[in-house]
Amino acid sequence: MLEVKDLNVSIAGTPILRNASLEMAGGKTFGLIGRNGAGKTTFMRSVMGLLPATSGTIRINGQDVAAQPPHLRAAMGVGYMPEDRRLVSEFTVEENILLPVKALGKTFDPARLDWIYELLPEIARFSARKALALSGGQQKLVALGRALIVGDQLLLLDEPFEGVAPALAQRLVEVIGALRQSGMSVLLSESDSVHSAGLLDGLYMIERGDITLREDIGAA
User: Fold this and answer.
1) How many helices and strands, by DSSP H and E, does the chain display?
2) Domain ranges, residue 66
3) pTM, rounded to two decimals
């Protein structure tokens, strides 16, 4: 599903990712664990094409997309939930969720939205509310719904549990667990694996832009 090999990325001339490699099969949930500043967000944004790679390959379902524009990922069924949510504050919840579909010029599938609302009934209840009026935790759920509207193959979740109340963190664990059971491929990043340990099929550690595979998932 996702294969990244020898990825090098620099920001403002400073190397951030150094020959970073990661591989995950379809239908699996993997964690990318590292402290703040280790390169997790840079890795996610690079996979999504939002940061250019100096060198290396990024293959999604066997297709190298390293030099392709960001919107190609969404067209390939890849959904992305950024750490900072990046909702359009003046748009309603539903408008934010549907934004990737409209950006791609795709035909809207009401059944997909109904499925998201069934999975996340919390956001269905305030679908007509402006994103500006939501709490940070509620915005996290909306950002997840937006990722799911196009992400029917692979989800990249950047720090999904950061800054949310314990009850919402547990709710996110339940939702991600349901996605895992449905056969969705999920890569999520965290500073530690406290929340996600029971969800993971595999675990990568990132430190100073270098990624290593951990065999002992519970030790992170």
Assistant:
1) 7, 10
2) 2-211
3) 0.91
